[in-house]
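Retry 2 of 3 after timeout on previous attempt. Resubmitting structure tokens to design endpoint.
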């Protein structure tokens, strides 16, 4: 298995998911100037994620912190904490794209391409084709079990539903989305223009 695969770690998407509530909670603490360690400690001690068991809290807090750091942008951390939820969700999507190359590639090469071609259809075939292509290109992805791939597909679809690209997990067409201007500016200032088609942004 290739150790330098850009998709290493993407298998953990099966349990990490989109984590909007957790991301917002974490961003609030970080934008107040807390260190990573203090943030994790506060989330854990006060059960800020409201999980029924404490077992997974620390791991999820670390995931949220890693995603926020992946954006390398303090303005977006602040915005994630304070903006209305539809804007914060877009920032959250950008953060998971930055942290997980697999989500980036899916959003840009599948969803962005759909918008570019004005093709609103969406279905299992799009997910299957995407993963088939990845498995051909990357030994690490090729080694994933069928159940891991199936779970990651579910996570990707849920991310689309959460951000209103899809009306439901059974939807067969993509809705148009509008990228918040502030986020567009920050994506550009980060040098990530390649991500813009994923947000239906071509100007």
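Retry 2 succeeded. Sequence:
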């Amino acid at each position: 298995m290739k150790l330098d695969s850009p998709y290493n770690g993407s298998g953990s998407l099966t349990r990490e998911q989109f984590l909007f509530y957790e991301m917002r909670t974490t961003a609030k603490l970080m934008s107040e100037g807390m260190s990573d360690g203090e943030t994790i400690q506060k989330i854990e001690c006060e059960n800020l994620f409201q999980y029924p068991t404490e077992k997974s809290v620390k791991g999820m807090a670390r995931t949220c912190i890693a995603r926020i750091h992946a954006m390398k942008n303090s303005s977006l951390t602040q915005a994630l904490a304070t903006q209305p939820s539809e804007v914060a969700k877009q920032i959250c999507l950008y953060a998971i794209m930055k942290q997980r190359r697999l989500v980036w590639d899916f959003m840009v090469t599948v969803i962005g391409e759909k918008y570019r071609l004005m093709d609103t259809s969406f279905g299992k075939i799009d997910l299957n084709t995407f993963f088939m292509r990845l498995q051909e290109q990357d030994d690490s992805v090729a080694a994933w079990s069928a159940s891991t791939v199936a779970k990651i597909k579910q996570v990707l679809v849920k991310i689309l539903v959460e951000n209103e690209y899809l009306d439901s997990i059974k939807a067969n067409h993509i809705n148009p989305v509008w990228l918040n201007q502030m986020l567009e500016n920050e994506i550009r200032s980060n040098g990530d223009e390649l991500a813009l088609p994923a947000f239906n942004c071509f100007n």
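Attempt log closed. Residues 26 and 64 are 7 Å apart (CA to CA).
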